[in-house]
Amino acid sequence: MVKAKSWVMTQHFDGFPKKSDFGLKVEELPEPKDGEVLLEAVFLSVDPYMRLLSKIHMKEGGVMIGEQVAKVIQSKNPAFPVGSHVVSDSGWRTHTLSDGTGLTPILPEWPKDVSLSLALGAIGMPGLTAVYGIEDVLGLKEGETLLVNAAAGAVGSVVGQIAKIKGCKVVGSAGSDAKVVFLKELGFDEVFNYKTVGSLEEALRKASPEGYDCFFENVGGSSSFIVLQQMKNFGRIAVCGSISTYNDSEPQTGPYSFFTVILKQLKMEGFIYSRWQHKNHETLKRLLAWVKEGKLQCREHVTKGFENMPAAFMGMLQGENTGKAVVAV
């Protein structure tokens, strides 16, 4: 019998999450049955979508949702031998019994000197999101100019680097001077701290006077209206996230910029990476190859200890992380 810990949402979040919104539970798990495996979490992910989807897919008292990299410690399923590692949607748990459904084995060619935590970041869901947003939604072409906000986050930092691989000009917006330095080290052409610029409109115009062909949107809110004014005619916008609104108690209303969308004939499309899950295996191999070639740099914000899951989650929502936020058990 294994004692498994899990973090549950004791009550739906009202505004920004609080420590009292989480509770730690302990339960004993039985031995695996035929076809089952027992997983032990190694790394767990904290992501903005958890705040958004908690309102839609979770009930009070339910285990917090999320991905983890886990090690198979007991197995009665030949597809997942003991000692192998998988990516699992097990949520905030230290141990999980699984029948194998939804488990994604770590790529067999994964180098030993590359942390498995990257399977939750650049070589995982955020990396897949970046690729599909750039290629399948935006159709980004060589020589075009791309703007990405929340650029130092798990998705944004990969978006900018892939755009540079494709021969584009990349402008990034981030929330601290340290993040600006980081993004310049990654090769972004122009970066600014949106918290300290006097005018977002002027900062955008200075970074790219000719305007923007593509916009990878992670933030939402009123700043998006300002960006739309500086899109080129026939510009494309990939709406990946709206983190600035996730903690609002009341839904934001306006400003509405349909007139700008009409005049500039813009294309705006929301997307979720799972639409292209049939391509995940090959896309993950591409991302891993870029990492091995040194074309894709990965930075992580690692919090140690399963007991610190809520703190890591709240810190990520406040922008404390540069790169992917993960928890190491």
TrEMBL record:
Residues 15-327 form the Enoyl reductase (ER) domain. One of its GO terms (biological process) is prostaglandin metabolic process. The keyword Phosphoprotein applies. It is found in: Cytoplasm. It is an enzyme of class 1 (oxidoreductase). The keyword Ribonucleoprotein does not apply. GO terms for molecular function: 15-oxoprostaglandin 13-reductase [NAD(P)+] activity; 2-alkenal reductase [NAD(P)H] activity. Keywords: Acetylation, Cytoplasm, Fatty acid metabolism, Hydroxylation, Lipid metabolism, NADP, Oxidoreductase, Phosphoprotein, Prostaglandin metabolism. Pfam families: ADH_N_2, ADH_zinc_N. One of its GO terms (cellular component) is cytoplasm. InterPro entries: ADH-like_C (IPR013149), ADH_N_2 (IPR041694), ER (IPR020843), GroES-like_sf (IPR011032), MDR_fam (IPR045010), NAD(P)-bd_dom_sf (IPR036291), PTGR1 (IPR014190). It catalyses: leukotriene B4 + NADP(+) = 12-oxo-leukotriene B4 + NADPH + H(+); an n-alkanal + NADP(+) = an alk-2-enal + NADPH + H(+); 6-trans-leukotriene B4 + NADP(+) = 12-oxo-(5S)-hydroxy-(6E,8E,10E,14Z)-eicosatetraenoate + NADPH + H(+); (5S,12S)-dihydroxy-(6E,10E,12E,14Z)-eicosatetraenoate + NADP(+) = 12-oxo-(5S)-hydroxy-(6E,8E,10E,14Z)-eicosatetraenoate + NADPH + H(+). Its EC number is 1.3.1.48, 1.3.1.74. Belongs to the NADP-dependent oxidoreductase L4BD family. PANTHER family: PROSTAGLANDIN REDUCTASE (PTHR43205), PROSTAGLANDIN REDUCTASE 1 (PTHR43205:SF7). Monomer or homodimer. This is Prostaglandin reductase 1.
